[in-house]
Amino acid sequence: MTSDIDKILVVSDIDGTILQAGYGIPGKNIETIEKFVELGGRFTLATGRGITATGKYTDFIHLSVPAILVNGGMIYDYSEKKVLREHTLEPEARSVLREIMDVFPNLGVEILIRETSCAVRMNEEVLNHTAVEHLPFVLTDLETVEDGWNKVLFGDKPEEILIVKDYVENRCKHDERFRLFDFVQTAKIYYELIPKGINKADALRELAEITDTEMENTVVIGDYYNDVELLEAAGISAVVGDAPDDVKEIADIVVKPCLEGGVAELLEMIMNNELK
Predict the structure, then answer these.
(1) 157 closest CA partner among 124, 203, 113
(2) Predicted local distance difference test score (pLDDT) of residue 134
(3) What is the tens place of the pLDDT at every residue in 82-132?
(4) 48 and 184 part of one domain
(5) CB atoms within 10 A of CB 272
(6) Considering 175, 195, 215, which residue would you say is the last residue of a domain?
(7) Is residue 276 part of a domain?
(8) What are the φ and ψ backbone dihedral angles of 113, each rounded to 5 degrees?
(9) What is the CATH number of the domain that holds 238?
């Protein structure tokens, strides 16, 4: 990796990495990001969140380049308020979702369309999701939601999500409609339906192209299984100390836990030229 800070691109996950739901962003992370950017470093976010849920942090986190949103489904420039790249779900997502909702009548369901969150079935987990991310949402039914979906989020208790996951994996073996999409567990209580082949890693490569950055000069930090491909794609990868053990094994560096300023520690290492 280069020692020229202005050629380095740092990309951080949000939830569980740069901040913790219910606790906010550690002040040390905010201060160190600002210092890093002032020195010429480039910093942004890669998250499963959409435009609105991510945008509420841009007053505190200095993003010097566009952000990767919706688990790689979108690259968005907050300074220009402009979508640079976007991937949406195939129309068959509606029939797949209808089947899943019929089989699991208590499963919470939320559809994201750019800046709009459509709650087509509310439960405790989906309500918590909209509250934690301060998401304005529209209560509606599946048949009236317009096309152009960025993703579908399912919410339920951890044991129920595992049952849904098993069902979907089985249906992927027997129904070509299900194989049109990817499914990813983003937290113990959340499972998502996303466009096929879309992930944070490919979005990182797209962002590197947009920002004229060599992949060897990309540094990423995450905390969970949906960050694995991103970690594997980057020049240097880091995870916070409270990441699962098997995710830690993938990373080049393990820093402090999220709330202890793990992101700040990584940036300090870069500014001190400790990464090679």
Answers:
(1) 124
(2) 66
(3) 999 999 999 999 999 999 999 999 999 999 998 888 999 999 999 888 777
(4) no
(5) 8
(6) 195
(7) no
(8) -125, 100
(9) 3.40.50.1000
Q: What is the pTM for the complete model shown?
A: 0.87
**Can you say how many angstroms the Cα of residue 181 is from the centroid of all Cα atoms in its chain?**
17
CA distance 106 to 163: 12
Q: What is the pLDDT of residue 114?
A: 87
Residue 170 lies in a domain: yes
Looking at 150, 167, 195, the residue that finishes a domain is 195
- Give the model confidence (pLDDT) of 49-59 as tens digits: 899 889 989 98
Partnered with residue 75 across adjacent β-strands are: 68, 85
Quick one: tokens of 109? 């369901």
Q: Which long-range contacts (CB under 8 A, 24 or more apart) does 21-29 make?
A: 21/132, 22/132, 23/259, 25/57, 25/60, 25/61, 26/258, 26/259, 26/260, 26/261, 26/264, 28/261, 28/264, 29/61, 29/261, 29/263, 29/264
Going from the C-alpha of 258 to that of each of 8, 58, 89, 176, 229, the distances in angstroms are: 22, 18, 32, 40, 20
Question: Which residues span the domain enclosing 161?
Answer: 93-195
Give the CATH number, domain containing residue 189.
3.30.1240.10
Domain membership of residue 203 (yes or no) is yes
pLDDT, tens digit, 9 for 90 and up, residues 177-209: 999 999 999 889 999 999 999 899 999 999 999
How far is the C-alpha of 177 from the C-alpha of 230, rounded, in Å? 27
Are residues 17 and 44 both part of a single domain? yes
- The answer to whether position 239 is within a domain reads yes
